[in-house]
Amino acid sequence: MTRFTDFKTWLKQEKLDAAIVTSPIAIFELTGYLSDPHERFLALFVSAKDNDFLMTPALEVNMAEEKTDIPVFGATDDQNPYEEFSKHIKKEDKILNIAVEYDHFTYGRMTNIKKFTPFSIKEDATSWLEYERMFKTPEQIKLLIESGEKADLMTSLVKKHIKTGITETQLKNVVEQEMHENGIEEFSFSTLILFGDHAADPHGEPGDRVLQDNEFVLADLGVMWKGYASDMTRMFYNGDVASLSEHHKKIHDLVQLAHDKAIAEAKIGMTASEVDQIARDVITDGGYGDYFIHRLGHGIGRSCHEYPSIVEGSDLEIKPGMCFSIEPGIYIHGDIGVRIEDCGYMSEEGFIKFTHSPYLITQ
Ligand code: MN
Ligand code: MN
Fold first, then answer.
1. Cα–Cα distance between 362 and 216 in angstroms, integer?
2. What's the gap in Å between 341 CA and the centre of ligand 2?
3. What is the pTM of this model?
């Protein structure tokens, strides 16, 4: 309950009356109860006074009560969950100024709750909740390492199934199927398999494009393992690398150099912007700065994208226990897309990778 108590202390310091926390991972960290309520309403009410409660769908009340000492109330599907939620807020506590998670608390929820409880949203609770989550314990890092081992296995399956004539979707499906056979129930995101110039769209969707000889394959993949995500990108080449054009080899090697240099030189005490800059300078000096169109990395843990953001302009200080990706890329529309990605954690010795698959994989 320490984190819960710390959160309440923060509310008091900020002179807030309460917070309504709605993101499932934040609720888990504050209460010990993890749920994916889908479209139903799940919310934790934390008061600067003592009238805290957790509101879940009615069918989850028993499960939640086993995990937390905070009173749990349910709303059945035929009840208005916002009205039910508001009934449990003590009128005498005069809840006026509250914090919510700006990225998660929708305008619809705000409008619906305000019909029953008038309040003003004064502060974003996201930064407090996310900041604390950045520092992983040794136990959490152990699980992230295990999750990384599963991603390495998945990469070896991509290599096994790459062949001329297979489509992006077929390759994705066969790899995911074999991961299921290896005991993986869930992926941290939908596996991204892109061939040739299709990889120039960093968030492209696998489709029925057919793999040709002497083409690149980009595979961006990861699993959920005991609640922890992995995320890795590797480039494969369906042919003999001797057949690579000068231009494509130069682009691939530049991305790898940027990746390796950022991993080797990231140090505790740098800012997130300085870590981004290590990789960005390599790509800019190589003449492709305009084609590195995203930040260097993102945090990873119970979710695949969380704090810290390794991005230009961020003065966030890199500290021990922070876990994030290093994933430079070059994307040239109609020509080529290359990204190389490993996640890892910061230690006194530097950045320690969770994934260890080889680079530029060929048959
Ligand atoms: Mn990533
Ligand atoms: Mn990725």
1. 10
2. 6
3. 0.88
